[in-house]
Amino acid sequence: MLFSDKRPILLNGIPELASRSDLADRSIIIHLPEISASARKYESELWKSFNEAAPRILAGLLDGISCAVGRIGEVKLSERPRMADFAKWVSSAELAYGWPEGAFLDSYAANRRSTVQATIEGNPVALAVTLLAREGGSWQGTMTELSKTLRARYPHITEDTFGFPRHANKLSSAIRRLKPPLREIGVEVGFDRQGQGSERIVKINKV
Question: Domains in the chain and their CATH numbers?
Fold first, then answer.
């Protein structure tokens, strides 16, 4: 059997690196514990430990692959999340690791919820739109009107010129990118054209 694989991309840093919703929706976020000064290792010690564990790591991966190959045709996911093929592949390997059926999908969904929350909390546009929807239930108007409304109501959020776009077209692009995570937390954003001049209208609703 021939396998075609792709290398995952690993990003490491202290702040939230996957702040753009399209990247966050395709990421698995792991928060590592802080290492105390007494527990830190030299690089040579780290590689020594890894090389000693490498045979067991490889064996575990091969067990998972063997299990997944045998089960992937029969595994049915209760939902198809983003990166559905990846989710199905790992779910097919659950038995190899003694995980209960559906355990990976539950963990994956929890990770995505955490990522969505971090995306919202770290984005001034998302925060302002969320507050507008939760306080009023619904809002409708042009993008220029939305910009003025958000800046008037939430100056403590929108005063940052770097994080909050000052031009309507830039705000529109930012909101379009945020539609998936906003929908996850119950805020629906839609765009429409109304009137003879086909003026673009944005509609925000709490669902």
Answer: 21-26+41-115 (no CATH), 123-206 (3.90.1150)
